[in-house]
Amino acid sequence: xxxxxxxxxPPSLRQRRRAVATQEIVRAAELHIAEHGSxxxxxxxxxxxxxxxxxxxxxxxxxxxxxxxxxxxxxxxDLATAVQTAADTxxxxxxxxxxxxxxxxxxxxxxxxxxxxxRFQLLYxxxxxxxxxxxxxxxxxxxxxxxAIFQRVLFGDFTTEQLAAADTLALSPPFxxxxxxxxxDGLAALPPRATALLLSxxxxxxxxxxxxxxxxxxxxxxxQAEIFHLAxxxxxxxxxxxxxxxxxxxxx
Length: 252
Known about the structure:
Elements: H1 13-36, H2 43-50, H3 54-57, H4 64-87, H5 101-115, H6 117-124, H7 138-155, H8 160-164, H9 173-180, H10 192-213, H11 224-241
């Protein structure tokens, strides 16, 4: 066995205890947000709910921003898991097995947001005062993971050449140049025209979810899921129609 393939030493008892305590703190913070909203989050309140002093909590999180970063990254990861699970699962009682994977993934996104409105608002609601996510940190990586899932379910069966030839409205030279300079770890993996389509589709999908989570479509009652499904079917049909070989339906 090569020298660099030796298994690493198991975590020590102290490390395991620290990991458990950290998980308990994060869970207590999530419960606090669910009950009081993200704006009310404080280390003192979390420490009080766990029966520990705020000074003791500082051994795990030096300030509120460090805890918020972990909470945001975990929320993104949980949301991404829900979306990926939905995209990989075809319900046995699905009325229409031809529903595109993008639509199923989008519905997984909506369902998680509706089930966890406070955590969704932590991600996409009013920014927390005095908080700025670390550049290139865990929140950025988690967001890129989410983007990659939607790229796959929307464009996975198309070639780069097809995506590059997508029929979009004229993109200005400055915008094209900006898209071409994006980080290779993110949207720059797509041709600029496909990136523009993805961002437009994302905005449409996310906007409908935000309207629902913030209560702006409550007048639809129990039909909110139906209108979302219809909108996502129309969205993916339109996007695939713009790609050579999409035939108005595109890959499932």
